[in-house]
Amino acid sequence: MNIAIIGTGYIGLVQGVVMSDLGFDVVCIDNDATKIEMLKQGKSPIYEPELEETLKKSLKNGKIKFTLDYNSGIKNADVIFLAVGTPPLADGSSNLNYITAASKNLAQFLSKDSLIITKSTVPMGEQTKKLKKLF
Predict the structure, then answer these.
(1) What pLDDT band is residue 122 in, cutting at 50, 70 and 90?
(2) Which candidate, 26, 103, 105, 126, has a CA 20 to 30 Å from the CA of 73?
(3) What domains sit in the chain, N to C, each tagged with a CATH number?
């Protein structure tokens, strides 16, 4: 099964590395070129026990890849995880700018039926409304 994960923060990176270690083919997409290059070298920008060692193993066996390009990243994906940040705003609500941007990019390049899973913290109903407009 081919999996794409949009976002390589704490949620997306750990999810991608674990899924690749389980034998799935994973492509992680992010808009931070420095982070993508670091990950391609097997270096993790975050600390999680065994993460970097597992990342290196998955890179070596070709089970995980990293890209800035949505088109190539989701091209063969059967399942796509949206795992981008939703930091709180001053009023306590979630900032949906990142997930909205990721959803728009996803909609632009989606060319096959794929299961889309939101792993970001998003208020119930808000993301559904936005995704319905895009797809």
Answers:
(1) low
(2) 126
(3) 2-134 (3.40.50.720)
